[in-house]
Amino acid sequence: MHTLALYPGSFDPITYGHLDILERAANLFDQVKVTVAVNKEKRSVFTGDERVALINECIADKEWAANIEVDQFTGLLVNHAKKLKAKTLVRGVRQISDFEYEFRMALTNKRLAPEVDTIFLMPAEEFTFISASLVKEIAYWDGDLSSFVPNNVAAALKEKFQK
Ligand code: PNS
Prior knowledge:
- The protein is α/β, with parallel strands linked by helices.
- It is globular and about 45 Å long.
- The chain has a five-stranded parallel β-sheet with strand order 3-2-1-4-5, sandwiched between helices.
- The protein has six helices and five strands, in the order βαβαβαβαβαα.
- It has helices at 16-28, 48-59, 77-84, 96-112, 132-140, 151-162; strands spanning 4-9, 31-37, 68-73, 88-92, 117-121.
- Bound molecules: 4'-phosphopantetheine (PNS).
- 4'-phosphopantetheine binds next to strand 1 and helix 4.
C-alpha cells in the first residue's frame, strides 16, 4: 500500500518546528505533500508562492525530504485532500493549549470527510514553543531569528520587515 499524507498549514513562514514535524511525517509515510493554505481574507506576510518557495529551499538539501512535495490550496482542506486522494492529514501539536483548536478542526474535517483522518505528531521538546506568529514579532523588532527559522527564512523576513 502506498501511503500519502498531507501536512497542511499556513506556514507564514515555515519554522524549525514545522521542519521537525515534516521530517517525522516523511519517515512515516511513503509520500508527504506540504499544502500551504492560501486565504485572501487572512492577512499573511508571505504570498502563497513565497511560502512554497521558502519551504522548497528549506528541504532542498535534506536527505530525508526525497518523498516530499510542496503545493498550495485555497478553499476547504478536505476538498483538496479528496482531490489528491489523500486519506491522512498530519498536524503538529506543541502543547495542550494547541489541542482544543486541533481537536475541533479534526472533528470538523471528519464530519465533512469521514474517510480522512488527522494524526497528530509532537515535535522535539526544543521546538515546542516556536510559532510563526512569535517569529514574525521577533523579525518585526529585528531580533535574532537564528534558533527559530533557517537562514533563508530569516533573510526573507528581514527583507519584508525592512520595507
Ligand atoms: O498553520 P495553521 O494556520 O494552524 O493551519 C490551519 C489550516 C490552514 C490547516 C486550516 O485553517 C485550514 O485547513 N484552512 C482551510 C479551510 C478549511 O478547510 N477550514 C475548515 C477546517 S476546520
